[in-house]
């Protein structure tokens, strides 16, 4: 991720030598999704008894998307000299490398519905490197734990116990050696690990072999979900007692390759094991080597990319809560908006806020105005990218799921949104704002939330609001409508009053006092 933190780098450089793994793709070949027309209806669902029971409890039917891809179709591809790399029962297809000649050959097969490209140079928007040590993350993690009211969950005994969490990322180097994660490995809390980049790599090699600097990324994400260091009396994440399933799906950062097919395969693997909560601090945007195949901002619509379609299937048909980093393109004037799969309606996309004002930090991607629903959904503080704000909220979700395991993914998502400090006055900069543990606990108990929001009508060019706050500077979101922000500003409070001068095109203004929200509606 742009400006992301490399976890405990200095602890490992003395005994690890970096290796770069170069994959030969074959002369003249490119990777594609080959999607099929139908399935063999006689095959049994490719999911575990645990998954079947979870679906039953959530009243989710087992359907065709749970059946494996038709073996006969794969055999015919292999007979034609094509080697499928990943299989997707959800999308009903396989990924494979095709030469132009093979592309034409496969297109003519009667069971092939369509072929879509997976480019080897696609940008992974949520990984990059900024070499820091764990000592440097300590003071930066503390503000977010206070911001989301972490002690409230601790006092309620909520630590993610009995919750299975999947983490899909670019690597987990050193995870079994980091002090903040030692408690997880000591109790054997990491149950299974899969490397979709190097299928033959063992679990230990995944933790101990460094191929690119992005191999630290998943380790850092895991620490933000469940990290705890009793020796230093520091808690880094909320889900300290959760159980984990880890998948490495991408090799490298911007300069290397992003593998959408690996991501889908990891999602389906976790679903087959009954995992209900998945963190993926990866996103995909632009970077196709063929400009005609580039994603464009207008295509971040929740259904153009196959990974967003897969994410929506996971949300609607599999009962999985997917928590995704919104992206770090907020300062990139050629892009600015969220990346896929954060654009999918059914996922919980997480932005990043500043520590003091709780408004959008500059790099955090904003939601496209074309979407009929709000993105990002919520936000929280992260100095080093949305790939660290997303795992914080993953831990938040795990505490909710521990408190009430019968909640569906959409009910958990609803609680997180309603627990956020701006709700119901969300916007496409920070969503509904920062989730607060005290509000989530009240919602879990069906208790009424305190009245912290109000709306006022204003006419003319300005309004003077009496406000009750100890802050000398507060954040305001100037909006062209109920959802979309024109700009965010910091205004001074003087003598208990806040003066707002209406900007051109400003129809509504959200005044964020943290403990209170005032929505100004201009007439």
UniProtKB/TrEMBL annotation:
The record's active-site residues are 169 (charge relay system), 217 (charge relay system), 387 (charge relay system)
Superkingdom to which the source organism belongs:
Bacteria
GO biological process, any: proteolysis
Q: Which Pfam families match?
A: Peptidase_S8
> What molecular function does GO assign, one term?
serine-type endopeptidase activity
Q: Which residues form the signal peptide?
A: 1-18
| Limits of the Peptidase S8/S53 domain | 163-433
Keyword field: Hydrolase, Protease, Serine protease, Signal
Q: Which family does it belong to?
A: Belongs to the peptidase S8 family.
Q: What is this protein called?
A: Peptidase S8 and S53 subtilisin kexin sedolisin
């Amino acid at each position: 991720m742009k400006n992301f933190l490399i976890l405990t780098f200095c602890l490992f450089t003395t005994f690890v030598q970096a290796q770069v793994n170069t994959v030969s793709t074959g002369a003249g070949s490119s990777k594609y999704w080959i999607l099929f027309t139908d399935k063999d209806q006689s095959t049994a669902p490719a999911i575990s008894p645990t998954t079947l029971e979870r679906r039953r409890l959530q009243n989710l039917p087992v359907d065709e998307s749970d059946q494996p891809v038709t073996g006969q179709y794969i055999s015919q591809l292999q007979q034609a000299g094509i080697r499928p790399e990943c299989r997707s029962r959800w999308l009903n297809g396989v990924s494979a490398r095709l030469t132009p000649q093979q592309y034409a050959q496969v297109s003519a097969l009667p069971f092939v519905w369509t072929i879509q490209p997976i480019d080897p140079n696609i940008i992974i928007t949520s990984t990059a490197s900024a070499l820091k040590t764990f000592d440097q993350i300590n003071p930066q993690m503390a503000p977010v734990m206070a911001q989301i009211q972490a002690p409230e969950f601790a006092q309620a005994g909520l630590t993610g116990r009995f919750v299975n969490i999947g983490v899909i990322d670019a690597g987990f180097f050193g995870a079994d050696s980091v002090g903040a994660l030692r408690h997880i490995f000591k109790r054997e809390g990491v149950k299974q690990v899969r490397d979709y980049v190097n299928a033959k790599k063992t679990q230990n090699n995944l933790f101990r072999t460094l191929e690119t600097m992005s191999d630290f990324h998943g380790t850092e994400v895991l620490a933000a979900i469940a990290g705890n260091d009793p020796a230093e009396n520091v808690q880094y994440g909320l889900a300290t007692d959760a159980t984990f399933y880890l998948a490495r799906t991408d090799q490298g950062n911007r300069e290397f390759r992003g593998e959408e097919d690996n991501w889908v395969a990891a999602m389906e693997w976790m679903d087959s094991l009954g995992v209900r909560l998945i963190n993926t601090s990866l996103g995909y945007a632009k970077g196709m080597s063929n400009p005609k195949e580039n994603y464009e901002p207008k295509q971040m619509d929740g259904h153009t990319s196959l990974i967003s379609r897969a994410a929506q299937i996971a949300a609607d048909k599999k009962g999985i809560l997917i928590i995704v980093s919104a992206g770090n393109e907020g300062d990139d004037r050629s892009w600015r908006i969220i990346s896929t799969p954060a654009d999918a309606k059914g996922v919980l996309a997480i932005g990043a806020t500043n520590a003091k004002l709780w408004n959008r930090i500059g790099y955090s991607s904003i939601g496209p105005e074309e979407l009929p629903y709000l993105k990002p959904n919520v936000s929280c503080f992260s100095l080093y990218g949305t790939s660290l704000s997303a795992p914080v909220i993953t831990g938040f979700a795990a505490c909710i799921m521990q408190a009430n395991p019968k909640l569906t993914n959409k009910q958990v998502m609803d609680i997180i949104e309603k627990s956020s400090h701006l709700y119901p006055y969300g916007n496409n900069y920070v969503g509904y704002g920062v989730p607060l543990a005290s509000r989530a606990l009240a919602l879990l108990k069906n208790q009424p939330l305190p009245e912290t929001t109000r709306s006022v009508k204003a006419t003319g060019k300005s309004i003077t609001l009496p406000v009750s706050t100890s802050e000398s500077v507060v954040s305001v979101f100037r909006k062209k409508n109920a959802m979309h922000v024109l700009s965010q500003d910091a205004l001074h409070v003087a003598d208990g009053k806040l003066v707002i001068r209406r900007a051109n095109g400003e129809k509504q203004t959200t005044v964020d006092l943290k403990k209170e929200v005032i929505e100004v509606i201009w007439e």
